[in-house]
């Protein structure tokens, strides 16, 4: 039995509310169970210097966790003068994942910055940030299309992410913190709406795993991502 009482292949409740930030070109609040992440998209009409003159656009991301997103207060990274390694790793992951679903030529020489702020954390914050970040990105791309700043859709497919793991000897979908902190194997799967793999992070925390376990986790992830894509479609409809 999972701590939450969910079935092995059962996602937490997912909701995505759009238009939650007035000034952002795209925004949403994604809730995956008790993990809540605010995602915004900002359009900058210039690319990074290394892309100037190439005709290509860029998507990047920043990630942060509010001090009381967790059970005890975490100091703001600005107060320490530098970002933690975990923060840097996660925001690079978010940027890589979202760029995998972007036609950068269609985007043109501009940059879209996705900001992901964790309001409340209960496991799977990076996956929620990627899934919600895509919605914010989609809304920003829609604005560019509506204003005719671009003429071709730069987002040919959805991008979403979900965690899976081996908890108490069972392969389970969408780990919350209680499961994530005790899982023998922990993984994050990022897929397109058509089921193409973007990135897989998988590690044995307490015990090794077999290839058959990896296949079962991928099967769970594919089903979970389809549910997330359905939630994305409903949010932007």
TrEMBL record:
The gene is rph. This is Ribonuclease PH. The keyword tRNA-binding applies. Homohexameric ring arranged as a trimer of dimers. It holds the Pfam family RNase_PH. Its EC number is 2.7.7.56. Phosphorolytic 3'-5' exoribonuclease that plays an important role in tRNA 3'-end maturation. Removes nucleotide residues following the 3'-CCA terminus of tRNAs; can also add nucleotides to the ends of RNA molecules by using nucleoside diphosphates as substrates, but this may not be physiologically important. Probably plays a role in initiation of 16S rRNA degradation (leading to ribosome degradation) during starvation. Phosphate binds at residues 86, 124-126. It comes from Falsigemmobacter intermedius. One of its GO terms (biological process) is rRNA 3'-end processing. It catalyses: tRNA(n+1) + phosphate = tRNA(n) + a ribonucleoside 5'-diphosphate. Residues 10-140, 159-223 form the Exoribonuclease phosphorolytic domain. One of its GO terms (molecular function) is tRNA nucleotidyltransferase activity. SUPFAM superfamilies: Ribonuclease PH domain 2-like, Ribosomal protein S5 domain 2-like. The keyword RNA-binding applies. It comes from the Bacteria. Belongs to the RNase PH family. Gene3D superfamilies: GHMP Kinase, N-terminal domain (3.30.230.70). NCBIfam families: RNasePH. Keywords: Nucleotidyltransferase, RNA-binding, rRNA processing, Transferase, tRNA processing, tRNA-binding.
């Amino acid at each position: 039995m999972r701590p939450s009482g969910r079935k092995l292949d059962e996602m937490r409740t997912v909701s995505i509310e759009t238009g939650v930030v007035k000034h952002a070109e795209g925004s949403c609040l994604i809730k995956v169970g008790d993990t809540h992440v605010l995602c915004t998209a900002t359009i900058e009409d210039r690319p990074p210097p290394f892309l100037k003159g190439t005709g290509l656009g860029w998507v990047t991301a920043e990630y942060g966790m509010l001090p009381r997103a967790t059970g005890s207060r975490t100091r703001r990274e600005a107060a320490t003068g530098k970002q933690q390694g975990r923060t840097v790793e996660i925001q690079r992951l978010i940027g890589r994942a979202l760029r995998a679903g972007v036609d950068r030529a269609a985007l043109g020489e501009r940059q879209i910055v996705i900001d992901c702020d964790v309001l409340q954390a209960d496991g799977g914050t990076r996956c929620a940030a990627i899934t919600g970040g895509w919605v914010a990105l989609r809304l920003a791309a829609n604005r560019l299309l509506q204003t005719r700043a671009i003429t071709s859709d730069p987002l040919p497919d959805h991008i979403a992410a979900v965690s899976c793991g081996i908890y108490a000897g069972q392969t389970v979908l969408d780990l919350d913190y209680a499961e994530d902190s005790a899982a023998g194997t922990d993984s994050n799967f990022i897929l397109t709406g058509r089921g193409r793999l973007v990135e897989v992070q998988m590690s044995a925390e307490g015990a090794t795993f077999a290839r058959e376990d990896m296949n079962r986790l991928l099967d769970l992830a594919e089903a979970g991502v389809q549910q997330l894509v359905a939630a994305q479609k409903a949010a932007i409809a």
